[in-house]
TrEMBL record:
Residues 539-560 have a biased composition (Acidic residues). The gene is Anapc7. It comes from Cochlearius cochlearius. Belongs to the APC7 family. One of its GO terms (biological process) is protein ubiquitination. This is Anaphase-promoting complex subunit 7. Pathway: Protein modification; protein ubiquitination. One of its GO terms (cellular component) is anaphase-promoting complex. Its main location: cytoplasm. TPR repeats lie at residues 350-383, 486-519.
Length: 576
């Protein structure tokens, strides 16, 4: 059969011209023309049919959505739905108008369901999640497309409606069994890996080269249960397979898992591999920037932040990286602003919440910091650093009981590993009654992982209190045998001073400063030794705790001078 003739431009109605331009992506043109036509329709209601008015309103709203004018778009979408409702009633009363042109028009009317989905998108952009859920809930279950179910699942999850979220994710998988993000959503809501795998088994068996998917599901099931070791081993087995070698997502997941496991060296290595494979990578770069900042590589952090801003300033990651640079430069006021900006862009950014919480804590605003750390825990219940931040706040406000309850809870929830043992020991060290328990916990942690830096630092602190400097020196030398860390070199320097080994102490402080030129305590250690050799009247500067310190408010070192500059940004400071 010959193809139906294409209507000429002359025979097309003006509404059809608008539709053609919308389909062609000429949004600015659609906005201008549809706006004029809607004014004409307002002045002469008989000029366009109800179905034509509906189409004009939808196309005009779509053009507003494209221009990111979401409130205006919602207003026009609402008017369009009201027009569609009136149109439906008219059709029921008068099914045929006798207009020959009405039939093809009715066939190509914009979908009412698609209009509601666009409205929900507008509401989410406006951070009106309840309105987004309400509009999508109004769509009958049988008419919901996979993207509607996916949006509903994510919104339900964010609102804490876990059962509804699970149902919606499962519906996405029923319709699209290879929807991997829906699989991750189910796993994050504690649905068993075996149950999730059973929903994809038919497609795995029917399509060649998909045998890896069951292993992939198993790996991320371990991720979401907090079993970092087995997750790392499973993802490594996937990454070594020739077909999945050098996959950026797998490398990013590995980097994040190493970070969670406290293996910062391997975490940085995997982030660097992923970055080399994809120079435009944004996901996970906030954690990478934080790790670099902790190591004192502030120039690298600054370069990373600039590169990420050039890629996109609409993601949280570049703001977090820049905030980490400010934080470790002791510019807490600026770090606070940058963290808040990152939260505004992505309220689910755990790293942004941790940055903002740490900045608030170091500025003495401990109760506000606690709110942020609690939100981070809600979003990432398997990440130990979220609990560490909260416990540091409790200790800073002398709430040792609350800190002990939280540390015990983490120990029971995440299991007895080097990290949880060290965290519990950290709290025990604050109470004279539990000093011996702290010692036992640290010994267990170091038996599991002799190179775990936080455990070594806390054990050294305990030995320092007991004035067992020789034991401390042996511990630190052993820990530094296979790694180099600024804090360990600095503490070794302190211990060497205590046993009058001044020259080697000076060497250790120098090594520490070569690793982190901004390490204030190493600098103070050197200056103290120099003063003892040639005393002066210069006063010693006050200690400033870093992000891993006790959380006590220290000298902001210049942040006060910035306070006025950033005071105008207080609208960013509240929780989003």
């Amino acid at each position: 059969l010959p193809a139906p003739p294409v209507p000429s431009a002359a025979s097309m109605s003006v509404v059809e011209h608008v539709r053609e331009m919308a389909a062609a992506g000429l949004h600015s043109n659609v906005r201008l023309l549809s706006g004029l036509l809607l004014t004409m329709s307002g002045n002469n209601p008989e000029l366009f049919s109800p179905s034509q008015k509906y189409q004009l309103l939808v196309y005009h709203a779509d053009s507003l959505f494209h221009d990111k004018e979401y409130r205006n778009a919602v207003s026009k979408y609402t008017m369009a739905l009201q027009q569609k409702k009136a149109l439906s009633k008219t059709s029921k009363v008068r099914p045929s108008t006798g207009n020959a042109a009405s039939t093809p028009q009715s066939q190509c009317l914009p979908s009412e369901i698609e209009v509601k989905y666009k409205m929900a998108e507008c509401y989410t952009m406006l951070k009106q999640d309840k309105d987004a859920i309400a509009i999508l809930d109004g769509i009958p279950s049988r008419q919901r497309t996979p993207k509607i179910n996916m949006m509903l699942a994510n919104l339900y999850k964010k609102a804490g409606q876990e059962r509804s979220s699970v149902t919606s994710y499962k519906e996405v998988l029923r319709q699209c069994p290879l929807a991997l993000d829906a699989i991750l959503g189910l796993l994050s809501l504690s649905v068993k890996g075996a149950e999730v795998a059973s929903m994809t088994i038919n497609v795995i068996q029917s399509i060649p080269n998909l045998d890896w998917l069951s292993v992939w599901i198993k790996a991320y099931a371990f991720v979401h249960t907090g079993d970092n070791t087995r997750a790392i081993n499973t993802i490594c087995s996937l990454e070594k397979k020739s077909l999945l070698r050098d996959n950026v997502d797998l490398l990013g997941s590995l980097a994040d898992l190493y970070f969670r496991a406290g293996d910062n060296k391997n975490s940085i290595l995997k982030f660097e591999q992923a970055q080399m494979l994809d120079p435009y990578l944004i996901k996970g770069m906030d954690v990478y920037g934080y790790l670099l900042a902790r190591e004192g590589r502030l120039e690298d952090v600054e370069n990373l932040g600039c590169r990420l801003f050039n890629i996109s300033d609409q993601h949280a990651e570049p703001w977090v990286v820049s905030g980490c640079h400010s934080f470790y430069s002791k510019r807490y006021s600026r770090a606070l602003y940058l963290g808040a900006k990152a939260i505004q862009l992505n309220s689910n950014s755990v790293q942004a919440l941790l940055l903002k919480g740490a900045a608030l804590r170091n500025m003495g605003r401990v109760q506000e910091a606690i709110i942020h750390f609690r939100e981070a825990i809600r979003l990432a219940p398997c990440r130990l650093d979220c609990y560490e931040g909260l416990i540091e706040c409790y200790l800073a406000s002398n709430s040792i009981r609350e800190a002990m309850v939280m540390a015990n809870n983490v120990y029971k929830t995440l299991g007895a590993n080097a990290q949880t043992l060290t965290l519990l020991a950290t709290v025990c060290l604050e109470d004279p009654v539990t000093q011996e328990k702290a010692k036992t916990l640290l010994d267990k942690a170091l038996t599991q992982r002799p190179d775990y830096i936080k455990a070594v630092v806390k054990k050294a602190e305990l030995l320092s209190r007991e004035q067992k400097y020789e034991d401390g020196i042996a511990l630190l030398r052993n820990a530094l045998a296979n790694q180099s860390d600024c804090v360990l070199h600095r503490i070794l320097g302190d211990f060497l001073v205590a046993v009058n080994e001044y020259q080697e102490a000076m060497d250790q402080y120098s090594i520490a400063l070569s690793l982190d030129p901004n390490d204030q305590k190493s600098l103070e250690g050197m200056q103290k030794m120099e003063k003892e050799e040639s005393p002066t009247d210069a006063t010693q500067e006050e200690d400033v705790d870093d992000m891993e310190g006790s959380g006590e408010e220290g000298d902001l070192e210049g942040s006060d001078s910035e306070a006025a500059q950033w005071a105008d940004q207080e609208q960013w400071f509240g929780m989003q």
